[in-house]
Give the backbone structure.
Amino acid sequence: MGQFSEEIKRRRTFAIISHPDAGKTTLTEKLLLFGGAIHVAGAVKSNKIKKTATSDWMEIEKQRGISVATSVMAFDYADHKINILDTPGHQDFAEDTFRTLTAVDSVIIVIDVAKGVEAQTRKLMEVCRMRKTPVIVFVNKMDRDGKDPFDLLDEIEEELHIHVRPLSWPIDMGQRFRGVYNLYEQKLNLYMPSKQYVTENVEFKDINSPELENYIDPAQAAKLREDVEMIEGVYPEFDVNTYLSGDIAPVFFGSALNNFGVKELLDCFIRIAPSPRPVQALERVVDPEEDAFSGFVFKIHANMDPNHRSCIAFVKVCSGKFERNVNYKHVRFGKMMRFSSPTAFMAQKKEVVDEAFAGDIVGLPDTGNFKIGDTLTAGEELHFKGLPSFSPEMFKYIENADPMKAKQLNKGIEQLMDEGVAQLFTNQFNGRKIIGTVGQLQFEVIQYRLLHEYGAQCRWEPLSLYKACWIESDNAEMLENFKKRKAQYMALDKEGRDVYLADSSYVLMMAQQDFPDIKFHFTSEF
Ligand code: G4P
Protein backbone atom coordinates (compact mmCIF):
# COMPACT_ATOMS: atom_id res chain seq x y z
CA MET A 1 0.00 0.00 0.00
CA GLY A 2 1.38 3.37 -0.98
CA GLN A 3 1.74 6.30 1.35
CA PHE A 4 -1.10 8.17 -0.40
CA SER A 5 -3.43 5.22 -0.41
CA GLU A 6 -6.08 6.78 1.76
CA GLU A 7 -6.29 9.92 -0.36
CA ILE A 8 -6.47 7.95 -3.57
CA LYS A 9 -9.08 5.47 -2.40
CA ARG A 10 -11.53 8.22 -1.57
CA ARG A 11 -11.40 9.73 -5.04
CA ARG A 12 -14.08 9.22 -7.67
CA THR A 13 -13.35 10.71 -11.05
CA PHE A 14 -16.11 10.43 -13.62
CA ALA A 15 -18.00 12.07 -16.46
CA ILE A 16 -21.69 12.42 -17.12
CA ILE A 17 -22.59 11.75 -20.71
CA SER A 18 -25.83 12.05 -22.58
CA HIS A 19 -27.46 13.16 -25.75
CA PRO A 20 -28.09 16.92 -25.60
CA ASP A 21 -31.18 17.80 -23.55
CA ALA A 22 -31.43 14.55 -21.63
CA GLY A 23 -30.58 16.44 -18.44
CA LYS A 24 -26.81 16.26 -17.96
CA THR A 25 -26.44 19.87 -16.86
CA THR A 26 -29.36 19.61 -14.49
CA LEU A 27 -28.01 16.43 -12.92
CA THR A 28 -24.51 17.89 -12.62
CA GLU A 29 -25.95 20.89 -10.88
CA LYS A 30 -27.90 18.80 -8.40
CA LEU A 31 -24.81 16.77 -7.60
CA LEU A 32 -22.88 19.97 -6.98
CA LEU A 33 -25.62 21.19 -4.68
CA PHE A 34 -25.28 18.03 -2.59
CA GLY A 35 -21.57 18.55 -2.40
CA GLY A 36 -22.06 22.14 -1.30
CA ALA A 37 -19.98 23.22 -4.27
CA ILE A 38 -22.70 25.58 -5.41
CA HIS A 39 -25.58 27.01 -3.46
CA VAL A 40 -28.05 28.07 -6.07
CA ALA A 41 -29.55 26.32 -9.02
CA GLY A 42 -28.61 27.71 -12.41
CA ALA A 43 -24.93 28.05 -11.61
CA VAL A 44 -23.71 25.55 -14.16
CA LYS A 45 -23.68 27.17 -17.54
CA SER A 46 -21.23 25.10 -19.47
CA ASN A 47 -23.53 23.02 -21.56
CA LYS A 48 -25.82 25.73 -22.67
CA ILE A 49 -23.51 25.82 -25.66
CA LYS A 50 -25.78 23.50 -27.54
CA LYS A 51 -28.68 25.93 -27.24
CA THR A 52 -26.94 28.26 -29.64
CA ALA A 53 -27.50 27.82 -33.33
CA THR A 54 -24.61 25.95 -34.90
CA SER A 55 -23.83 28.81 -37.25
CA ASP A 56 -23.13 31.07 -34.32
CA TRP A 57 -19.88 29.45 -33.43
CA MET A 58 -18.21 32.64 -32.21
CA GLU A 59 -20.71 32.64 -29.41
CA ILE A 60 -19.97 28.99 -28.86
CA GLU A 61 -16.25 29.60 -28.59
CA LYS A 62 -16.86 32.42 -26.17
CA GLN A 63 -18.85 30.09 -24.03
CA ARG A 64 -16.18 27.47 -24.34
CA GLY A 65 -13.84 30.00 -22.86
CA ILE A 66 -16.15 30.49 -19.94
CA SER A 67 -16.50 26.79 -19.53
CA VAL A 68 -12.84 26.36 -18.54
CA ALA A 69 -14.01 26.86 -15.01
CA THR A 70 -16.46 24.04 -15.32
CA SER A 71 -14.16 21.68 -17.20
CA VAL A 72 -13.61 19.88 -13.94
CA MET A 73 -15.89 20.25 -10.99
CA ALA A 74 -14.54 18.91 -7.74
CA PHE A 75 -16.25 18.64 -4.41
CA ASP A 76 -16.22 16.66 -1.20
CA TYR A 77 -19.13 14.48 -0.27
CA ALA A 78 -19.34 11.95 2.57
CA ASP A 79 -15.57 11.66 2.93
CA HIS A 80 -15.11 11.26 -0.78
CA LYS A 81 -13.45 13.62 -3.19
CA ILE A 82 -15.54 13.72 -6.33
CA ASN A 83 -14.19 14.99 -9.65
CA ILE A 84 -16.76 15.49 -12.38
CA LEU A 85 -15.23 16.03 -15.80
CA ASP A 86 -17.44 18.08 -18.02
CA THR A 87 -17.94 17.14 -21.64
CA PRO A 88 -19.11 19.54 -24.34
CA GLY A 89 -22.75 19.19 -25.23
CA HIS A 90 -22.33 20.10 -28.88
CA GLN A 91 -21.80 17.10 -31.10
CA ASP A 92 -19.20 18.86 -33.21
CA PHE A 93 -16.95 18.65 -30.18
CA ALA A 94 -17.41 14.90 -29.78
CA GLU A 95 -13.67 14.38 -30.14
CA ASP A 96 -13.15 16.45 -26.96
CA THR A 97 -15.58 14.18 -25.21
CA PHE A 98 -13.83 11.03 -26.41
CA ARG A 99 -10.59 12.29 -24.95
CA THR A 100 -12.18 13.31 -21.69
CA LEU A 101 -13.45 9.76 -21.38
CA THR A 102 -9.86 8.55 -21.35
CA ALA A 103 -9.30 10.45 -18.11
CA VAL A 104 -12.24 9.13 -16.10
CA ASP A 105 -12.58 6.02 -14.01
CA SER A 106 -16.31 5.65 -14.52
CA VAL A 107 -19.27 7.21 -16.27
CA ILE A 108 -22.90 8.08 -15.58
CA ILE A 109 -25.13 7.99 -18.64
CA VAL A 110 -28.28 10.10 -18.55
CA ILE A 111 -31.18 8.90 -20.67
CA ASP A 112 -34.43 10.75 -21.25
CA VAL A 113 -37.27 8.33 -20.41
CA ALA A 114 -39.34 9.59 -23.33
CA LYS A 115 -36.59 9.59 -25.93
CA GLY A 116 -34.67 6.49 -24.93
CA VAL A 117 -31.23 5.84 -26.37
CA GLU A 118 -30.19 8.62 -28.77
CA ALA A 119 -27.41 8.93 -31.31
CA GLN A 120 -24.78 10.66 -29.27
CA THR A 121 -25.21 8.33 -26.30
CA ARG A 122 -24.64 5.40 -28.60
CA LYS A 123 -21.40 6.85 -29.90
CA LEU A 124 -20.04 7.76 -26.50
CA MET A 125 -20.92 4.36 -25.13
CA GLU A 126 -18.77 2.79 -27.84
CA VAL A 127 -15.79 4.54 -26.33
CA CYS A 128 -16.73 3.36 -22.84
CA ARG A 129 -17.10 -0.18 -24.08
CA MET A 130 -13.75 -0.09 -25.78
CA ARG A 131 -12.13 0.98 -22.52
CA LYS A 132 -14.33 -1.20 -20.30
CA THR A 133 -15.33 1.84 -18.30
CA PRO A 134 -17.87 1.06 -15.56
CA VAL A 135 -21.19 2.71 -16.38
CA ILE A 136 -24.23 3.64 -14.30
CA VAL A 137 -27.42 4.61 -16.13
CA PHE A 138 -29.75 7.32 -14.82
CA VAL A 139 -33.14 7.35 -16.52
CA ASN A 140 -34.28 10.94 -16.20
CA LYS A 141 -37.52 12.93 -16.46
CA MET A 142 -39.72 10.34 -14.75
CA ASP A 143 -42.09 13.20 -13.97
CA ARG A 144 -42.98 13.09 -17.65
CA ASP A 145 -44.63 10.34 -19.61
CA GLY A 146 -42.21 8.09 -21.38
CA LYS A 147 -41.40 4.60 -22.46
CA ASP A 148 -42.32 1.53 -20.47
CA PRO A 149 -39.36 0.89 -18.14
CA PHE A 150 -38.93 -2.74 -19.19
CA ASP A 151 -38.97 -1.78 -22.87
CA LEU A 152 -36.48 0.94 -22.13
CA LEU A 153 -34.11 -1.49 -20.41
CA ASP A 154 -34.32 -3.79 -23.44
CA GLU A 155 -33.58 -0.85 -25.67
CA ILE A 156 -30.54 0.12 -23.59
CA GLU A 157 -29.21 -3.44 -23.72
CA GLU A 158 -29.71 -3.68 -27.44
CA GLU A 159 -28.58 -0.25 -28.48
CA LEU A 160 -25.71 0.22 -26.07
CA HIS A 161 -24.58 -3.41 -26.10
CA ILE A 162 -24.37 -3.66 -22.36
CA HIS A 163 -26.27 -5.73 -19.82
CA VAL A 164 -28.29 -3.78 -17.30
CA ARG A 165 -29.53 -4.37 -13.78
CA PRO A 166 -32.11 -1.98 -12.29
CA LEU A 167 -31.23 -0.91 -8.77
CA SER A 168 -34.30 1.22 -8.40
CA TRP A 169 -37.71 0.86 -9.96
CA PRO A 170 -40.24 3.57 -10.80
CA ILE A 171 -43.74 3.59 -9.44
CA ASP A 172 -45.66 4.89 -12.43
CA MET A 173 -44.53 7.97 -14.33
CA GLY A 174 -45.62 11.35 -15.62
CA GLN A 175 -48.42 12.95 -13.66
CA ARG A 176 -48.94 9.75 -11.70
CA PHE A 177 -45.28 9.30 -10.77
CA ARG A 178 -45.14 8.29 -7.12
CA GLY A 179 -41.45 7.66 -6.67
CA VAL A 180 -39.15 4.68 -6.83
CA TYR A 181 -38.53 1.51 -4.92
CA ASN A 182 -34.81 1.40 -4.20
CA LEU A 183 -33.94 -2.24 -4.77
CA TYR A 184 -30.38 -1.68 -3.68
CA GLU A 185 -31.20 -0.29 -0.27
CA GLN A 186 -34.68 -1.76 -0.02
CA LYS A 187 -36.29 1.56 0.59
CA LEU A 188 -39.34 3.26 -0.71
CA ASN A 189 -38.58 6.78 -1.96
CA LEU A 190 -41.79 8.70 -2.36
CA TYR A 191 -42.35 11.69 -4.54
CA MET A 192 -44.84 14.53 -4.48
CA PRO A 193 -44.78 16.74 -7.54
CA SER A 194 -45.43 19.86 -5.52
CA LYS A 195 -42.61 19.18 -3.09
CA GLN A 196 -39.95 18.50 -5.69
CA TYR A 197 -37.77 16.13 -3.70
CA VAL A 198 -37.94 12.80 -1.91
CA THR A 199 -40.80 13.43 0.48
CA GLU A 200 -40.49 10.17 2.34
CA ASN A 201 -37.75 7.67 2.57
CA VAL A 202 -39.13 4.51 4.09
CA GLU A 203 -37.20 1.39 4.95
CA PHE A 204 -39.19 -1.33 3.20
CA LYS A 205 -37.69 -4.80 3.10
CA ASP A 206 -40.76 -6.71 1.98
CA ILE A 207 -42.93 -5.06 -0.60
CA ASN A 208 -45.39 -7.94 -0.30
CA SER A 209 -46.41 -6.60 3.07
CA PRO A 210 -49.87 -5.01 3.00
CA GLU A 211 -48.31 -1.93 4.54
CA LEU A 212 -47.23 -0.89 1.07
CA GLU A 213 -50.81 0.22 0.46
CA ASN A 214 -50.41 2.75 3.23
CA TYR A 215 -48.02 4.63 1.00
CA ILE A 216 -49.15 4.10 -2.56
CA ASP A 217 -52.51 3.29 -4.07
CA PRO A 218 -53.49 -0.40 -4.46
CA ALA A 219 -53.15 -0.51 -8.23
CA GLN A 220 -49.66 0.97 -8.08
CA ALA A 221 -48.70 -1.38 -5.25
CA ALA A 222 -49.85 -4.40 -7.22
CA LYS A 223 -47.95 -3.25 -10.28
CA LEU A 224 -44.80 -2.64 -8.26
CA ARG A 225 -44.94 -6.11 -6.74
CA GLU A 226 -45.43 -7.66 -10.13
CA ASP A 227 -42.57 -5.63 -11.64
CA VAL A 228 -40.15 -6.41 -8.84
CA GLU A 229 -40.93 -10.11 -9.10
CA MET A 230 -40.23 -9.90 -12.79
CA ILE A 231 -36.95 -8.06 -12.20
CA GLU A 232 -35.79 -10.64 -9.70
CA GLY A 233 -36.71 -13.35 -12.18
CA VAL A 234 -35.16 -11.81 -15.27
CA TYR A 235 -32.07 -10.03 -14.06
CA PRO A 236 -29.24 -11.66 -12.13
CA GLU A 237 -28.58 -10.38 -8.64
CA PHE A 238 -26.44 -7.26 -8.72
CA ASP A 239 -22.77 -8.09 -8.43
CA VAL A 240 -20.52 -5.07 -8.09
CA ASN A 241 -17.68 -6.85 -9.88
CA THR A 242 -19.67 -7.17 -13.09
CA TYR A 243 -20.24 -3.43 -12.90
CA LEU A 244 -16.57 -2.73 -12.29
CA SER A 245 -15.55 -4.91 -15.22
CA GLY A 246 -17.87 -2.90 -17.48
CA ASP A 247 -20.18 -5.84 -18.17
CA ILE A 248 -23.31 -4.76 -16.32
CA ALA A 249 -24.68 -1.26 -15.90
CA PRO A 250 -26.85 -0.63 -12.83
CA VAL A 251 -29.86 1.54 -13.65
CA PHE A 252 -31.54 4.23 -11.54
CA PHE A 253 -34.72 6.15 -12.27
CA GLY A 254 -35.46 9.70 -11.20
CA SER A 255 -35.98 13.29 -12.11
CA ALA A 256 -32.97 15.54 -12.03
CA LEU A 257 -35.02 18.68 -12.33
CA ASN A 258 -37.03 17.76 -9.25
CA ASN A 259 -33.93 16.53 -7.48
CA PHE A 260 -35.61 13.19 -7.18
CA GLY A 261 -33.44 10.10 -7.01
CA VAL A 262 -30.25 12.13 -7.33
CA LYS A 263 -29.02 11.68 -3.77
CA GLU A 264 -29.77 7.96 -3.99
CA LEU A 265 -27.74 7.82 -7.18
CA LEU A 266 -24.87 9.68 -5.56
CA ASP A 267 -24.91 7.53 -2.42
CA CYS A 268 -24.75 4.35 -4.44
CA PHE A 269 -22.18 5.88 -6.76
CA ILE A 270 -19.66 6.63 -4.03
CA ARG A 271 -20.06 3.12 -2.70
CA ILE A 272 -19.67 1.16 -5.91
CA ALA A 273 -17.84 3.40 -8.38
CA PRO A 274 -14.14 2.71 -8.71
CA SER A 275 -11.41 4.83 -7.20
CA PRO A 276 -8.60 5.60 -9.66
CA ARG A 277 -7.74 2.54 -11.66
CA PRO A 278 -4.40 1.28 -12.96
CA VAL A 279 -3.39 2.90 -16.22
CA GLN A 280 -1.66 1.17 -19.09
CA ALA A 281 1.55 2.76 -20.29
CA LEU A 282 3.53 1.47 -23.23
CA GLU A 283 6.19 0.22 -20.85
CA ARG A 284 4.06 -1.21 -18.03
CA VAL A 285 0.87 -0.87 -16.03
CA VAL A 286 1.01 2.05 -13.61
CA ASP A 287 -0.78 1.59 -10.31
CA PRO A 288 -2.39 4.73 -8.83
CA GLU A 289 -0.99 3.91 -5.42
CA GLU A 290 2.61 4.02 -6.54
CA ASP A 291 4.41 6.78 -4.66
CA ALA A 292 5.99 8.38 -7.71
CA PHE A 293 3.92 10.90 -9.64
CA SER A 294 2.85 10.28 -13.21
CA GLY A 295 0.12 11.77 -15.38
CA PHE A 296 -0.91 12.61 -18.92
CA VAL A 297 -2.40 15.53 -20.81
CA PHE A 298 -5.89 14.68 -22.07
CA LYS A 299 -7.14 18.10 -23.00
CA ILE A 300 -5.76 21.49 -23.92
CA HIS A 301 -7.91 24.52 -23.56
CA ALA A 302 -6.90 27.57 -25.55
CA ASN A 303 -7.30 31.03 -24.18
CA MET A 304 -9.68 32.85 -26.43
CA ASP A 305 -7.89 36.13 -25.90
CA PRO A 306 -5.63 36.45 -28.94
CA ASN A 307 -3.25 38.75 -27.05
CA HIS A 308 -2.37 36.02 -24.61
CA ARG A 309 -1.79 32.91 -26.57
CA SER A 310 -1.66 30.76 -23.48
CA CYS A 311 -3.46 27.53 -22.86
CA ILE A 312 -4.32 25.32 -19.98
CA ALA A 313 -3.15 21.74 -20.29
CA PHE A 314 -5.34 19.41 -18.28
CA VAL A 315 -3.36 16.63 -16.67
CA LYS A 316 -4.92 13.53 -15.18
CA VAL A 317 -2.79 12.38 -12.26
CA CYS A 318 -2.37 8.62 -12.75
CA SER A 319 -0.20 7.79 -9.77
CA GLY A 320 1.23 9.26 -6.61
CA LYS A 321 1.16 12.91 -5.72
CA PHE A 322 1.69 15.95 -7.90
CA GLU A 323 3.31 18.92 -6.15
CA ARG A 324 3.67 22.54 -7.05
CA ASN A 325 7.20 23.73 -7.86
CA VAL A 326 8.64 20.23 -8.03
CA ASN A 327 10.55 19.14 -11.11
CA TYR A 328 8.83 16.61 -13.34
CA LYS A 329 9.93 15.03 -16.54
CA HIS A 330 8.21 16.02 -19.76
CA VAL A 331 8.83 12.65 -21.40
CA ARG A 332 8.49 13.70 -25.05
CA PHE A 333 11.02 16.51 -24.56
CA GLY A 334 13.16 14.48 -22.17
CA LYS A 335 13.52 17.55 -19.98
CA MET A 336 12.54 18.51 -16.47
CA MET A 337 9.90 21.17 -15.92
CA ARG A 338 8.23 22.61 -12.90
CA PHE A 339 5.00 24.40 -12.45
CA SER A 340 4.53 27.34 -10.16
CA SER A 341 0.83 27.82 -10.62
CA PRO A 342 -0.98 24.56 -11.22
CA THR A 343 -4.70 24.98 -10.75
CA ALA A 344 -7.49 22.81 -9.52
CA PHE A 345 -11.17 23.41 -9.74
CA MET A 346 -12.77 23.22 -6.33
CA ALA A 347 -16.25 24.55 -5.85
CA GLN A 348 -16.23 25.98 -9.36
CA LYS A 349 -13.34 28.26 -8.59
CA LYS A 350 -10.03 27.90 -10.28
CA GLU A 351 -7.40 27.93 -7.56
CA VAL A 352 -3.68 27.42 -7.38
CA VAL A 353 -3.03 24.14 -5.62
CA ASP A 354 0.01 22.81 -3.82
CA GLU A 355 -0.72 19.16 -4.37
CA ALA A 356 -2.99 16.74 -6.16
CA PHE A 357 -3.37 12.98 -5.96
CA ALA A 358 -4.02 10.17 -8.40
CA GLY A 359 -7.51 10.66 -9.78
CA ASP A 360 -7.33 14.44 -9.65
CA ILE A 361 -7.04 16.77 -12.59
CA VAL A 362 -4.60 19.68 -12.51
CA GLY A 363 -4.58 22.52 -14.98
CA LEU A 364 -1.11 23.63 -16.07
CA PRO A 365 -0.75 27.03 -17.70
CA ASP A 366 1.09 26.39 -20.94
CA THR A 367 2.51 28.32 -23.83
CA GLY A 368 2.88 25.52 -26.32
CA ASN A 369 4.92 22.90 -24.51
CA PHE A 370 2.21 20.33 -24.34
CA LYS A 371 0.20 18.33 -26.77
CA ILE A 372 -2.53 15.85 -26.18
CA GLY A 373 -1.19 12.56 -24.91
CA ASP A 374 2.00 13.97 -23.38
CA THR A 375 3.23 12.20 -20.27
CA LEU A 376 4.71 13.80 -17.15
CA THR A 377 6.54 11.66 -14.59
CA ALA A 378 8.85 11.90 -11.60
CA GLY A 379 11.64 10.76 -13.91
CA GLU A 380 10.62 7.45 -15.40
CA GLU A 381 10.32 6.99 -19.15
CA LEU A 382 6.59 6.28 -19.47
CA HIS A 383 4.17 6.75 -22.33
CA PHE A 384 0.52 6.42 -21.47
CA LYS A 385 -1.63 4.67 -24.01
CA GLY A 386 -5.31 5.00 -24.61
CA LEU A 387 -5.59 8.36 -26.30
CA PRO A 388 -6.51 7.16 -29.74
CA SER A 389 -7.50 9.40 -32.60
CA PHE A 390 -10.78 8.40 -34.18
CA SER A 391 -11.45 8.57 -37.85
CA PRO A 392 -12.85 12.02 -38.61
CA GLU A 393 -16.19 12.34 -40.35
CA MET A 394 -15.40 15.31 -42.60
CA PHE A 395 -12.32 16.13 -44.63
CA LYS A 396 -11.09 19.19 -46.49
CA TYR A 397 -7.89 20.28 -48.15
CA ILE A 398 -6.41 23.28 -46.40
CA GLU A 399 -4.72 25.79 -48.69
CA ASN A 400 -2.69 28.86 -47.97
CA ALA A 401 -4.61 31.99 -48.98
CA ASP A 402 -1.79 34.43 -48.22
CA PRO A 403 1.55 33.33 -49.70
CA MET A 404 3.43 35.81 -47.47
CA LYS A 405 2.27 34.00 -44.37
CA ALA A 406 3.13 30.38 -45.13
CA LYS A 407 5.26 30.04 -42.01
CA GLN A 408 2.54 31.38 -39.75
CA LEU A 409 0.03 29.09 -41.35
CA ASN A 410 2.13 26.00 -40.78
CA LYS A 411 2.86 26.93 -37.22
CA GLY A 412 -0.81 27.64 -36.56
CA ILE A 413 -1.93 24.37 -38.07
CA GLU A 414 0.63 22.47 -36.05
CA GLN A 415 -0.33 24.06 -32.76
CA LEU A 416 -4.05 23.73 -33.30
CA MET A 417 -3.57 20.05 -34.09
CA ASP A 418 -1.50 19.59 -30.92
CA GLU A 419 -4.41 21.07 -29.04
CA GLY A 420 -6.61 18.45 -30.61
CA VAL A 421 -8.91 20.83 -32.48
CA ALA A 422 -8.86 18.54 -35.52
CA GLN A 423 -6.60 16.02 -37.25
CA LEU A 424 -4.02 16.66 -39.92
CA PHE A 425 -3.18 14.19 -42.67
CA THR A 426 -0.60 14.75 -45.36
CA ASN A 427 -1.27 13.13 -48.68
CA GLN A 428 1.78 11.01 -49.57
CA PHE A 429 1.18 11.39 -53.29
CA ASN A 430 0.95 15.15 -53.70
CA GLY A 431 1.95 16.43 -50.27
CA ARG A 432 -1.28 18.36 -49.79
CA LYS A 433 -2.52 18.91 -46.28
CA ILE A 434 -5.90 17.51 -45.32
CA ILE A 435 -7.81 18.47 -42.18
CA GLY A 436 -10.26 15.96 -40.73
CA THR A 437 -12.95 16.94 -38.23
CA VAL A 438 -16.05 15.61 -36.54
CA GLY A 439 -18.23 18.57 -37.52
CA GLN A 440 -18.44 21.55 -39.83
CA LEU A 441 -17.92 23.87 -36.89
CA GLN A 442 -14.27 22.97 -36.50
CA PHE A 443 -13.40 24.22 -39.98
CA GLU A 444 -14.80 27.62 -39.08
CA VAL A 445 -13.05 27.61 -35.72
CA ILE A 446 -9.73 26.75 -37.37
CA GLN A 447 -10.05 29.41 -40.04
CA TYR A 448 -10.93 32.05 -37.48
CA ARG A 449 -8.20 31.12 -35.06
CA LEU A 450 -5.54 30.90 -37.75
CA LEU A 451 -6.37 34.45 -38.74
CA HIS A 452 -6.75 35.94 -35.29
CA GLU A 453 -4.03 34.12 -33.41
CA TYR A 454 -1.47 33.51 -36.14
CA GLY A 455 -2.24 36.15 -38.76
CA ALA A 456 -2.56 33.43 -41.38
CA GLN A 457 -5.28 32.94 -43.94
CA CYS A 458 -6.52 29.63 -45.16
CA ARG A 459 -8.92 28.43 -47.79
CA TRP A 460 -10.83 25.15 -47.77
CA GLU A 461 -11.18 22.90 -50.77
CA PRO A 462 -13.77 20.19 -50.83
CA LEU A 463 -12.69 16.61 -50.52
CA SER A 464 -15.13 13.78 -50.43
CA LEU A 465 -13.86 10.97 -48.25
CA TYR A 466 -15.58 8.28 -46.26
CA LYS A 467 -13.11 7.30 -43.54
CA ALA A 468 -9.51 7.45 -42.47
CA CYS A 469 -8.16 3.97 -41.75
CA TRP A 470 -4.96 3.27 -39.93
CA ILE A 471 -3.50 0.20 -41.61
CA GLU A 472 -1.18 -2.56 -40.48
CA SER A 473 -0.17 -5.99 -41.68
CA ASP A 474 2.30 -8.78 -40.97
CA ASN A 475 2.41 -9.36 -44.69
CA ALA A 476 4.97 -6.75 -45.78
CA GLU A 477 4.63 -7.56 -49.44
CA MET A 478 0.87 -7.16 -49.44
CA LEU A 479 1.20 -3.91 -47.52
CA GLU A 480 3.65 -2.54 -50.09
CA ASN A 481 1.35 -3.63 -52.91
CA PHE A 482 -1.60 -1.98 -51.28
CA LYS A 483 0.25 1.25 -50.75
CA LYS A 484 1.35 1.29 -54.37
CA ARG A 485 -2.11 0.55 -55.66
CA LYS A 486 -3.71 3.18 -53.45
CA ALA A 487 -0.88 5.70 -53.71
CA GLN A 488 -3.24 8.59 -54.34
CA TYR A 489 -5.19 7.78 -51.21
CA MET A 490 -2.31 7.19 -48.84
CA ALA A 491 -1.56 9.80 -46.21
CA LEU A 492 0.51 10.21 -43.09
CA ASP A 493 -1.06 11.26 -39.82
CA LYS A 494 0.66 13.70 -37.48
CA GLU A 495 2.75 10.97 -35.92
CA GLY A 496 3.88 9.73 -39.33
CA ARG A 497 1.69 6.63 -39.35
CA ASP A 498 0.25 5.26 -42.58
CA VAL A 499 -3.37 6.12 -43.12
CA TYR A 500 -5.56 5.03 -46.00
CA LEU A 501 -8.24 7.54 -46.95
CA ALA A 502 -11.15 5.55 -48.30
CA ASP A 503 -13.46 7.57 -50.50
CA SER A 504 -16.50 5.34 -50.08
CA SER A 505 -17.69 2.42 -48.02
CA TYR A 506 -17.79 0.33 -51.16
CA VAL A 507 -14.17 1.03 -52.04
CA LEU A 508 -13.17 0.21 -48.49
CA MET A 509 -15.07 -3.06 -48.61
CA MET A 510 -13.36 -3.99 -51.86
CA ALA A 511 -9.97 -3.14 -50.39
CA GLN A 512 -10.69 -5.34 -47.39
CA GLN A 513 -11.61 -8.16 -49.75
CA ASP A 514 -8.64 -7.77 -52.08
CA PHE A 515 -6.11 -7.37 -49.29
CA PRO A 516 -7.19 -9.87 -46.63
CA ASP A 517 -3.94 -9.68 -44.66
CA ILE A 518 -4.27 -5.96 -44.04
CA LYS A 519 -6.10 -4.73 -40.99
CA PHE A 520 -8.06 -1.50 -41.37
CA HIS A 521 -8.58 0.36 -38.09
CA PHE A 522 -10.85 3.33 -37.50
CA THR A 523 -8.81 4.47 -34.51
CA SER A 524 -5.13 5.21 -34.34
CA GLU A 525 -4.52 2.85 -31.43
CA PHE A 526 -5.23 -0.81 -31.81
P1 G4P B 1 -28.32 18.59 -21.17
O1 G4P B 1 -27.30 19.23 -20.30
O2 G4P B 1 -28.26 17.10 -21.15
O3 G4P B 1 -28.36 19.09 -22.55
O4 G4P B 1 -29.77 18.92 -20.57
P2 G4P B 1 -30.23 20.01 -19.51
O5 G4P B 1 -29.82 19.63 -18.15
O6 G4P B 1 -29.89 21.36 -20.03
O7 G4P B 1 -31.80 19.76 -19.60
C1 G4P B 1 -32.53 19.93 -20.78
C2 G4P B 1 -33.93 20.34 -20.46
O8 G4P B 1 -34.60 19.28 -19.74
C3 G4P B 1 -34.01 21.56 -19.56
O9 G4P B 1 -35.16 22.29 -19.91
C4 G4P B 1 -34.24 20.96 -18.18
O10 G4P B 1 -34.86 21.83 -17.30
C5 G4P B 1 -35.10 19.77 -18.51
N1 G4P B 1 -35.03 18.70 -17.51
C6 G4P B 1 -33.92 18.17 -16.92
N2 G4P B 1 -34.26 17.22 -16.03
C7 G4P B 1 -35.60 17.11 -16.07
C8 G4P B 1 -36.55 16.30 -15.36
O11 G4P B 1 -36.23 15.48 -14.53
N3 G4P B 1 -37.87 16.52 -15.66
C9 G4P B 1 -38.28 17.42 -16.58
N4 G4P B 1 -39.58 17.53 -16.80
N5 G4P B 1 -37.41 18.20 -17.26
C10 G4P B 1 -36.09 18.06 -17.00
P3 G4P B 1 -35.12 23.55 -20.87
O12 G4P B 1 -36.44 24.17 -20.80
O13 G4P B 1 -34.60 23.14 -22.21
O14 G4P B 1 -33.97 24.43 -20.25
P4 G4P B 1 -34.05 25.45 -19.06
O15 G4P B 1 -34.54 26.69 -19.70
O16 G4P B 1 -34.99 24.88 -18.04
O17 G4P B 1 -32.64 25.53 -18.58
In short: Residues 5-272 form a domain with the Rossmann fold fold (CATH 3.40.50.300).
